[in-house]
Amino acid sequence: MLSQNRKSEFYNLMKQKAKTHAELLFETQQIDSALLSTIDKKYRNPFSSENITIYNVDGKIIYSNNSTVEYPITTSILNEIKLKGELQLEKSPYRILELHLKASMMHDAIIIAGDIDWASITKIITYLDYCRHCI
To answer: Across the chain, what does the average pLDDT equal?
Structure first.
């Protein structure tokens, strides 16, 4: 139960970050992808491997905050995201949220947001360390 709650919490946080990025990009006239990238670099945790990439519905990248971690996207993945609205997956060590978002009447976007769930990893390590001392 704790693991499921943590996973749900992680995906909710990624969803909120993805939506915030889309809102800033599409609904704030003063912010374009270059300025959003600058803001991300300035306020981002340097140890984070978070990646938020926003695509148009044709699969063209509109914005990405990370040039080192890529989540490959194919036409079939795009179509599945459009159909289902939201997908959650794990590609160890990453948890990835794929989201179809209608940011506004003018903007229809696919957002891929992912990161390593360090809080869950830390809990597992702590538990294993605890078990080691019980033996």
So the answer is: 80
Residue 101's closest CA among 115, 114, 91, 87? 87
The owner of tokens 């889309």 is: 22
Residue 111: strand pairing partners: 54, 99
Query: Shortest CA distance to 44 belongs to which of 61, 76, 25, 67?
Result: 67
**DSSP state string for 70-135:** -----HHHHHHHHHHSEEEEEETTEEEEEEEEE-SSS-EEEEEEEEE-HHHHHHHHHHHHHHHHH-
Q: Which pLDDT tens digit goes with each residue over 77-96?
A: 889 999 999 999 888 788 88
| Three-state helix/strand/coil letters over 59-85 | CCEEEECCCCCCCCCCHHHHHHHHHHC
Domain residues for 41? 2-134
State the pTM of this model. Answer: 0.76
Residues in CB range of 43: below 8 A, 6 or more apart: none
CATH code of residue 127: 3.30.450.20
Go through the chain and tell me how many residues it has. Answer: 135
